[in-house]
Amino acid sequence: MPAARPVSLRTRLVARLGGWINRIRRPVTLGVRAIVRDRKGRVLLVRHTYVPGWYLPGGGVEARESVGEALAREVMEETNVRIIGAPRLIGIYFNRRGRSDHVVLFEILDFEQASPKQRDREIAEARFFELDDLPEETTRTTRARLDEYVKGAPISSIW
Question: 30 forms bridges with which residues in the sheet?
C-alpha cells in the first residue's frame, strides 16, 4: 500500500473554513454514512485527500435531496459503487462535533462496482478490508460503528 501523502496546511484550513461556513448557513446538518460489505464480508473504507484516516463512505445531505438520494450520490462519488437493493437503516447518531449534526448510518449489501474508484481531488483511496485487518489509520468512530454493527458492542447514540 502506498504511503499516505501528508495533508497540506492550506487544504486543512480550506476544509475547516468550509465547515464553519456550513455551520452558519445550515445550523442543523444531516449526513449519511454507509457500511458497504461485499460477499466476502469485507467492508469498504475511504481515505480522503484533506483529512487523515480511513472512514465509512458518506457525506452531507444537500438542500432538496432525500437521505436516500444523498446516500446513493455520496457512495457513488466516493467509491464508484452503485446501490442496487434497498439499503438497511442501522441508526441515527448525534455528532457532537457540530451544534446540531446528525448522521444516518445504513448497511449496503446489494451493489455493483464497475471499476475501482480512482484517486480524485476528494478521495485518495477507496478499498475493501477484512474486518479483522482494518488499516491502522481507521478512525475511532469508524471502528466504533463497525464494532457495534458487526461484533455486537453496546450501541451508542453518539457518532
Answer: 102
Nearest to 36 by CA among 1, 77, 68, 83: 83
* pTM, entire model: 0.82
Residue pair 55/143 in contact by the 8 Å Cβ criterion: no
Residue 156 lies in a domain: no
User: What CATH number corresponds to the domain at position 112?
Assistant: 3.90.79.10
Total structural domains within the chain = 1
> Burial, 133: exposed, middle or buried (Cβ in 10 Å; 0-12, 13-18, 19+)?
exposed
Domain that includes residue 102, residue range: 28-151
Question: Which residues, at least 6 apart from 2, have a Cβ–Cβ distance to it below 8 Å?
Answer: none
* Maximum distance among all Cα pairs of the chain, rounded to whole angstroms: 43
Question: Cell match 442496487: residue?
Answer: 84
pLDDT digits (tens, 9 = 90+) for 16-65: 777 666 656 657 889 999 999 999 999 999 999 999 999 999 999 999 99
